[in-house]
Every structure is written in structure tokens, then in C-alpha cells.
Amino acid sequence: MSTAEATVRRPVFVEILERLAAQRGARIETEPLYGYAGAVIDAVGRRHFFKGTHFDINRAGAAALARDKDYAGRFLAAAGLATPRGVLLHGPRRTVQLSLKNPLVAARLPDRAAAHAFAEEVGYPLFAKPNEGSEGDGVTRVGDAAGLDLALDALLALHDRVLVQQAVAGEDLRVVVLDGRVKAAFARRPLSVTGDGASPLSALIAARLAEFASDGKGARIAADDPRILSELAASGFTPDSIAEKGATIALLANANLSTGGSASDITDTLNPAAADAAIRAAAALGLRFAGVDLLAAPGAPPVVLEVNAAPGLAYFHRMGPQAAARVEAIYADLLDALLAS
């Protein structure tokens, strides 16, 4: 084994599963280089495959449906759940490809003009994001027509389909559901810095991102990421601004943990309406195991943002002993469900 291979640490969930599997007379086999993909093998040799946090517990069709944000939103709305209003845009490359097969359909695909028409109808701010993706990749909040064009330029250069959605207020929640039961819930907050009354925001941002590297998490976003600059501008700041001492300045509109967000465990105090919405959302997409992202505001039904068919729990596992125990209990239940299937 090379030095590079020897220093690669396997995912936390694999280490947890190996310990839990041994207690159940099963074992875990992974590909040797990164340990990222493999199988749970039970006592009689049956194999239950996984790649990353994608497990055999969810059927392929259901997982693919959840991955498509626009289609998933339509199924969620049909099930009576609140979802953000939005419009799906198709990039030039996709439109050209489809026009060769079905020009009539290609001619009807919504494009950039549809995004501006939608903005005029519902108003700003809006969110623009890849229609397929996870971990907050590419999610951008825009506050005006110029910002919308900038976001679409960046997104359509990389993605064939982009979803533009109306912004919804509320506390950002991630609820983990397994077989119709809530297993954990976390309130999430976006990446932010706290002003000290002296340092420019650029210095505070650099220091905050450096903390990730020192913790072994890696910098999941660059200090000059356009989304940070856009969010600062929306709040009336620039990288050179000096925030008041004690002021919390959000750097991103989304609260994904993979882009530096933070979280707190609210499993024991989760609002019943949010729990019900999460359970119904997983069921609406045919998922046994899911991470449901909600926005919850007082006096309003929870809004389902997205449903993840392969929720990652590594960040929550690092939050402390109580959260770690909760995550390991989830994986124990998940493993039992896999072995019983």
C-alpha cells in the first residue's frame, strides 16, 4: 500500500457499521482504496450494497426521484405538503440536444426569460440552484434581476437544468426519517462570522475557514466564493466592511453543514407538525430512509425544501457524545432494517 493510500481515512459511517455489523454476526466489505463503497454481508452471505451514504434500503427509482428537485417538489405538493414555488430552467446545451429528438418539446422548455417572468410574479429574493445536487452546491440567493442573471450565468455554465425558487422564511431543519419514524432532528444555521469592531470581514472570513482545516474538515468553500460576496452585498456589506462588535454576519443563504453551517440537536423538542411533514415527505417519495430539509415558521405549515435519499450524518456525529450516540443508534436501526430485508 502506498503512503497516500495508507493516510486516507475511511468514512466515519463505515467504522460505525463495522462495529455494529460484528455485533450482529455480519461484516462489512469495502473497496480497498478509500473504503467509500462496499457491502453489508449477513451471516448467510447475502450482500446489501452501499456507495457513500446511498444504501440498498431505498429503491433506485425512489432515490432518483428525490435527487431531482423539481420532480420531487411536484410529488410532495401532490401529497398535500407545502413546497416553495419555483420554475425549472433548461440550459442551451440541453435544449439543443432535445431539439434533435423532439423539437416541439424543446421549443416549450422554460429558459432565462421564464426566470425573470417568475421573479416579476413572486418578487425577490429568490434562490437559484442546480436541479440535481446536494450539500448546498451552487445554491445562491439573489436579490434583483442583475443578481439573477449572474447566478444563472454561473449555474447554466455547469448544469443543464437550474431551479429558481421563491425564498421562504423559517428555521432550517434537517429531520432524519427511517421506516416512518423520526430518528433525529437538527436545527441548522448558515456559515457566519461575528464582528469584532476592528477587523474587516475578509479577515474574519479567512480565519473562520481556517478553522475547518485545523479541525480536519477541509475548507468546503473559498473566501471569494461568489455566493459569499452576493450574501454580503444583500446585507449591505463588502469584504472590506467592519461589522460591529458582537454582530453575527451570515455568509451564505443556505445552512448546509457541508458549506460551514452549524447545528444543534432538537430531536427531543421537534414540533409535531415538522415531524409529521418529514414523515409524509419521505413516504410521498417512496423512501424508507431520508433526510428531510424543512423550513419551519410559527403559525405556518412546515415547508419541505428537499428530501435527501442518502443523508450524511458525519457532521452530527462530531457534535458531541449525545449526538454521536443518536447517530450510532440511527445506523444500528438502519443496519437492522437492511439485514431484515
TrEMBL record:
**Keywords of the record:** ATP-binding, Ligase, Nucleotide-binding
Per the record, the GO terms for biological process are: SOS response
Q: Which named protein is this? A: ATP-dependent carboxylate-amine ligase
Lineage start:
Bacteria, Pseudomonadati, Pseudomonadota, Alphaproteobacteria, Hyphomicrobiales
Tell me the Pfam families matching this sequence. Dala_Dala_lig_C, RimK
Q: Which residues form the ATP-grasp domain?
A: 73-336
**Stored PROSITE patterns:** ATP_GRASP
Q: Which GO terms describe its cellular component?
A: cytoplasm
Superkingdom is Bacteria
Query: SUPFAM superfamilies annotated for this entry?
Result: Glutathione synthetase ATP-binding domain-like
What molecular function terms (GO) are annotated for this protein? ATP binding; D-alanine-D-alanine ligase activity; metal ion binding; ribosomal S6-glutamic acid ligase activity
Specify the species: Stappia indica
